[in-house]
Design a protein that fits this description.
It contains three helices and four strands, in the order αββββαα. The chain has 140 residues and is α+β, with helices and mostly antiparallel strands. It has a single domain, classed as Hypothetical protein (hspc210) (copper amine oxidase-like fold), CATH 3.30.2280. Strand 3 and strand 4 form a beta hairpin. The relative contact order is 0.13.
Length: 140
Amino acid sequence: RMETDCNPMELPNNTGFEEDSDYTDFEGTEVKDMRLEAEAVVNDVLFAVSNMFVSKTLPCAEDVAYINVETRERNRYCLELTEAGLRVVAYDFDKTDDRLQTPYHETVYSLLDSLSPAYREVFGNALLQRLEALKKESQS
């Protein structure tokens, strides 16, 4: 069982579902736990940025999570992750600025691509290396 930094009082305890089961809403469609989604986002691109982690101070919920990222250019951002996608909500860790009206990005790749040329280069190189490795595998 994974530990989270969420306050248990924030989570509904009357869902009637087993702890391990997928969250579902009343129509029977799946609801994502955004904190788990945020952890997956971080694990996916951590290699291509200087630092990235799910915020421990901003509130997490089923529908929103916050991710702090520092690009290789040393710029810091706080990202909001919702069903709508990811967007920058502040230019520092663990902050939100309601005046910021930044666009949503469908993927973390798209968002980081727009923020960090160094990310784009590292990610592109990793992709090329992977393709080379696959090419060698298929030739042997």
